[in-house]
Amino acid sequence: MSGRLLTHLRHVDLAVPDYDKQLDFYSGVWGLTKVAEDSGISFLAAEGSPEQYVVRLRKAADKRLDLVSYGAASRADVDTLAAQLASSEVQLISEPGAVDTPGGGYGFRFFDVDGRTIEVSTDVEVRQHRKIEEKEAIPVKLSHVVLNSPDLNRTREWYERHLGFALSDTLSSPHMGEVMHFMRISNQHHSMAIAQGPHTALHHVSFEMRGIDEYMRGSGRVMRAGFQKIWGPGRHMAGDNTFTYFLDPHGNTVEYTTELEELDEDTWHPHVYDFSQPEVTDQWGTANPMNELVAKESFNDPDRGVFIAPPV
């Protein structure tokens, strides 16, 4: 797409009251690697990813989504995007400058239309990573993030206009209308999706596994460890990816996935899928049905960080 300045999703940062439990979960049963920690803040990498980290945890009194971080190709692109956002009266939290997190880099932060903090950075040092081996059931990389918005189409239009996202597919139903938009910044079907929700909040964070076998082994490990599985295993129609959803110790939904669809952007036309049809939510028919419990857990708690920049 011409004019697109974002390249990929880097990391998702969470503030959590029960920091030790969260760190044990993500660096233990979930399969991430703690690469740095300093006084109530930790950085967790995926072994197969060149990103310095894919999750940041911060100890805080209130649970919130601290920020979502995206990459850009160059300092010039970062500067261009910052200038474009400022001229469109998007509220910048910081001007482009040095990034003071593992791997360094150059970037800035701003609020999206719902008040989430978004970071864009470039020149971050590449982490030494490795190929994930057969039967090694740990995340290869961060796949995508899904965000709840009280005004689905306003949020979609903001991300299209200001950040160059393109619509891949939509979930809808005869009774509820549109409930989710899948958005992309590359040929990956979605690096973000926007869900219609009662309030601004994190819907879920998704992690890519090596393949079907590793995805199933990882899902089984989390289940055996006693963490609540809320939906899956199955395969969605939009994106054609597998899914198993769990709750982390503080009630955030996290997903193992694999085989997310790659598109030909020049020829792709968005579909509108009727998610009241069982095969749309799960082509395989192996997952528990989508129901009120699954939806309620995915709404999450109202985000306490709306239009409040995280302290770090």
UniProtKB/TrEMBL annotation:
Q: Which domain of life is it from?
A: Bacteria
| Xref: Gene3D superfamilies | 2,3-Dihydroxybiphenyl 1,2-Dioxygenase, domain 1 (3.10.180.10)
What are the VOC domain coordinates in residue numbering?
8-123, 141-259
A Pfam family matched in the record: Glyoxalase
**PANTHER family registered for this protein in UniProt:** GLYOXALASE FAMILY PROTEIN, METALLOTHIOL TRANSFERASE FOSB
Name by which UniProt lists this protein: VOC family protein
Q: Which organism is it from?
A: Streptomyces durmitorensis
Q: Lineage of this protein's species?
A: Bacteria, Bacillati, Actinomycetota, Actinomycetes, Kitasatosporales
